[in-house]
Amino acid sequence: MLDVKDADFAPLIRGDWEEDIGAGKNFRTFVKLEGKKLVVTSHEMHADPNWPDHTITSETKEARVNDQKQFVVTGLWRVESNAKGYEGKKVEPSDFTYTFWPVSRDIVWFDEGRRNNWVKLVRAKKSEGSFAIGAEPPELTQPPRALGGPSRGDHGLTGCRLRVA
After folding, report:
1. Are residues 84 and 69 in contact, defined by beta-carbon separation less than 8 angstroms?
2. What pTM does this model have?
3. Average pLDDT for residues 130-157, to the nearest whole number?
């Protein structure tokens, strides 16, 4: 575990994180800290329109280190939303408390405030053509083969690769 202080929260946790999961798990957690904005998304791993991505967006109020060297994060407000367009009311102050337990610069244990529910997060790797949940996919620069575009295997994408989970 890392020896951290309150001021280390933003520099250490800033960016995109994804749950380190194995086969057979139905949902995957994604976390993003950008400035004071903290976004936590639960993503359904199997295509099922009945379970759209569920997101809690908050503005962090403070991050304090507890006696176990964990960041305990409280929020000024939070808003719940999903990929089907639902957006809940703004809750002020946020009634959620998140805990981050850094193991290294690229691995943290994360708790959404549920009892005994730690999730291992790894820093999301940025690779050419990859995009985070909720982000727009790369634009096609050429039409697909069916429309007279490139040959099989190119899939109409120029200069990028798509990751398939």
Report:
1. no
2. 0.73
3. 38
